[in-house]
Amino acid sequence: MQGEDEIASIGMCIGAAMTGARAMTATSGPGVSLYSENIGLAIMGEVPLVIVDVQRLGPSTGAATTTAQGDVQFVRWGTGGGFPIIALCPSTIGECYTLTMKAFDLAERFRCPVFLMADKELALTMRTVDADDYKSVAVRQRPVIDPDDLDPPMEYRYEPAGEVVPMQLYGGKHPVRFTGSAHDQEAYITKKPGILGPLNRHLIDKIDNHVDEISLVKTDLEDGANTLLLSYGVTAGSMREAVARARAEGTKVSAITLQSLWPVPEREIMAAASGIERIVVAELNPGLYLRELERLLPDTEIVGISRIDGVLIPPTQMLEAIV
Amino acid sequence: MSTPIELLPEPTLRTESDYPFCPGCGHGPVLDALNAAMVKLELEPHEVVIVSDIGCAGLSDQYFATSAFHGLHGRSITYATGIKLMRPDLTVVVIMGDGGTGIGGAHLLSAARRNIGITVLVLNNFNFGMTGGQHSTTTPEGFLTPTTPAGNLEAPLDICATVGVNGAAYSYRGTSFDADLVDRIAEGITTTGLAVLDVWDLCTAYFVPNNKFGRRQIDQTMEALGLESGVLYRKETQELATAYRRLAEGQREGLRVKTVTASVAPTLERRLHFVVAGSAGGRVRSAARLVALAAMRSGLWSAQRDDYPTTVKSGHSVSEVIISPEELHYSGIEHPDVLVVVSEDGVGKAGPYLEAMTDSDTVFVAAGLEHPVTEAQVIVLDPAQSDVRIPRASLALAMVAKAVHHTGVVPFDLFEESAGEGGFGEKNLALVAAGIELSD
Fold first, then answer.
1. Looking at residue B2, what is its pLDDT?
2. ipTM confidence score
3. CATH number at residue B428
4. What gap in Å lies between CA A169 and CA A178, rounded to an integer?
5. CATH number of this structure's domain A1-214
6. Chain B residues in contact with A315 (beta carbon < 8 A)
C-alpha cells in the first residue's frame, strides 16, 4: 500500500498492527522526519512495527541516491520525549534479510517500533550474494491475550516496570482500546503523576533492562592488536576489506561491526576494546556514533574517520589509521 | 398490588460516563446520534472501532464501549484506513473536529479518492475549541477568533464538496440539531465506500461568545456561504479493502529468484574494475550487467553500481562493475582497469576516472569524442566503419563487447552466453558480433 505521504504510511501500519498484522514501512531520512510524531505514538501505544530508513546524504532533501549514514542519532532522538528505541543495522545484503526478520522479532518481543538502518549503497548496488548468507531467524508470534483472561482487563500494564503485556487486538470477541495519550492501564487518558511516572518508566525499562536480548555485534579480534576498528552498515564492508589487507601485510588489527546501534551494545564494545590503545570509528556522517564511544571509553584514544561527500570510505583510509 | 415490571435496559454502545463537554456544546448530541445509529444497526461493541482524532472531538472514544483508537491530531483517517484494510468486516468510525480536516487534509482527500469503507464524522464547530478557539480551515470569513482578532480572511473549506468531487461515496452536511442525524449517520455507516458527515455545532466556550453565534446563526451562515445541507453526494462504488483483495487474488506471490551458476573455475587473481560511461537510454547498465554476469559464471564475485540523474531518461548513465575472486566487501572504485566511453554525456563523467588511470589500464572511446588526457592506453572505436549499422542506443553493448574481447577481463564465451539470454538474446548477439569487429 502506498500512502499519500509518510505520515499516512506509518499511520496505516500502526492501525494495521492493532488488528494483528505485522507491518513495515520504508523511507529515507526526509521521510523519517515525517514519521516522527507517529514514532512517538507507536512507542506510547506499544505497537510492534518495523521502520526501514535507507539513509541518504545531507539535511533536508539532501543528495538523493547518494549514500550516507547520517540518521544514526536522528532515529535515536527522532521523536519527542527522549525514550529509547531499537535500531538494527545490516552491513551486507544477506544481513538485510536476516536483520529484517530480527527486527520483526524484537518488535513483537518489546511491542515497539524497531528501525532497520540501511543506506543507498546497500539498497541500490547490485552484488553477487551467496544464498547461504540468507539466514532465517525465528520471528516469534505476537503474544496476544483475550481481555477476558485478564483480571482486571487491561490493555496496558507497567507494573512491574519493563514487563511487556501481551497485546489485545481489534476484531476479537471483545472491544479493545488503544491510545497514544498518557493513559492508565485500561487506556483511558490520565495525567495523574502516580500513573504517569510508572507508565513512562515502563517504556524506558522495557528496552533498557533487556539490552542483552537486543545487542548484536560481529567481532574479529586479533591477539596483540593495538587498534580496534569499529563500524556499521556499508562502511563495515570497507572495514572488513581493510582488516584483510592489514593482516596480509602483517599488521595486527581487531574489528567490531555493530549490527545493533540502539540501544548501544555497550557490554560487547567494552569487551572488544579490552587491551586496545586506540579505537577508530568509521562512519559516513560528521562523526555521530563516535560520541557514544567517547562516552563509554573516556580513557581510550578515539579517532573518527568520517566522510560526508557521498563517497564510501575506502579501505586505504582505514589502513592509514591503524597503529 | 401490582408486580413491578422489570424494564430491559435500553440497548446502547455508550459507557456510563457522562460526556466532559461544556454546557451547550454540540458534541454530546452528535455522539448520542452516533450511538443511536449504531444501536439501530444492531452493532455490537466489538464490531466497531471508533478512531478519535485530537481536540474535544478526540475525547469521544472514551464514552463508548466499542473498540477505540486515539492517535495523533489530523491522522485519525490513516489509522482507520490501516484497520479497515486488514479487517474489512469491522465498522470503523472516525470522529474528528474541523481542526483535523486542516491538519490531515491530505488524508481526507486520499480517503475520498480511495473510497476506503470508513465513516468520518466531523464535529465542525469552526475553531480549535480545546486550545483556546483559534481559527480552523472551516472558520468562515469575517469571524472572530483569538488568531483572527480583526476577522478571518480565509475562505472556509467546503468539506462535503471536496470529498464529493474527489470520489467519496457519500457526503452529508447538517447540524447537531438535525432530527434526521441518526438516520444519516446510519446511512453513512452502511455506505460501501467512504462516508463523510460534516456536522456543524456550537462551541459555547469560544466561537459562540466571540461571534454572538447560536443555533440560528449556524443556519444563516450556511445559507450565506451558499452551502447546501442534506445528503450532497451519494453513489455506488467499490470499497478499497475489498477491491484490493479481489485484485490481489491470482497475483503472483513470492520472490522471483534467478540464480547464476558458475560453469568454470575462476582464473582472475585480483579485483578488477570495469566502467561504462554513456548516456541515459543508451542501455549502459544492461551492457555493464553482462560483464558482471559473465564474471559470476566464471566463479567470480561481482558488484554493479549505477549512477544516473534523477530524471532517469536524460543525461549521463555510468555503470561501475567490480569483479573479484574474493567476496566483495567494499563496492567503491579506486581506479578503473577498463573504461568504455560511449557518448558526450559519458565524457562529462569520465574525467576523474581518466585522471586516476595508469598505463596498465585501457580506455575504449567512441570516435569523435574529445576526452581529457590520460596515462591509460586509449583505443578509439568508430561505429561508422562497421559493416553492420549499430544504433546509438546499442553502441554501449557493442563497445563493451569489444572491450571484453580485447582485454579478456572475463571469458568472452561467458559474456556471449550472458548476452544471448532472454528476449533480446538474438539482437544482442548480433551487436556483440559487430562490436568485436569495431576499430578506428
1. 63
2. 0.96
3. 3.40.920.10
4. 9
5. 3.40.50.970
6. 330
